[in-house]
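dumping this here before i forget
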Amino acid sequence: MYDKKQPQNVQEVIDMVKGVGGGFGKLPIIAGGLILLLLLMGGTPWTIVGPGQRGVLVRLGAVQKGVFSEGLNFKMPFIDSVVKVNVQVQKNEARAEAASKDLQIISTVMATNYHLIPEAVDEVYQKIGAAFEDKIIQPAVQEVIKSVTAKYTAEELITKRGEVKSAIRAELSDRLAVFNIKVVEVSVADFNFSKTFNDAIEAKQVAEQQVAKSKNELERIKVENEQKISMAKAEAEGLKIQRQEITEQLLKLREIENQKKAIEKWDGKLPSVTGGAMPFIQVK
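structure:
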């Protein structure tokens, strides 16, 4: 009967097969049995790295230089093991609180899209391990948000949102590149302020709207007055032109016309009662 005890090494396997087969007369069967037993014990001489992964080779507990790429890779049975590491783009979310340049307390949530640099995953695994998000990314995000927001006032964090985001992404990229982590993109949620600050912002906006309304009203009145002045100037200019057109010759012509009309109406008789000066009419 077969011994139900599991063999502990290759020699015990050979002894077990010898006892069953009666020697080395059936070497192909023995070899097949050894290979099958090795496979059952996990001693395969190869490993398969899946899509979006890289393999880190660990030999007798020590990380080896080099990275296994996707697909079939060979290793030494029982001696080597392969740790598969994800190099696809991943998302990390971190909540942070900081102070602005004008000492307003703000809070926000930042999402970071990143991936490990594929050719350096052996170094990442050796120096940091699998918990690189907790050890590296989360603390870096906290420090970067505090560093960047301290350069802007609370109002600037709202009005210069694009600039703030670019500054955060640039600084975070520099920090994580040291650990072979590449930042793809960052997304900063709305900055949240205290209720007192929000009320002050709202009051300021209302005041600015009132000022803008008053300015518009003053501008309207100014335009209307300018229009009236322009019309008055035009009328005065028209009268001036008319006065300039009344020349000495025009006055003499009007006098002759009046005298002509008076002659046409005279019946040739002198008035019977005279008092004062009699009009003198020159007839040429």
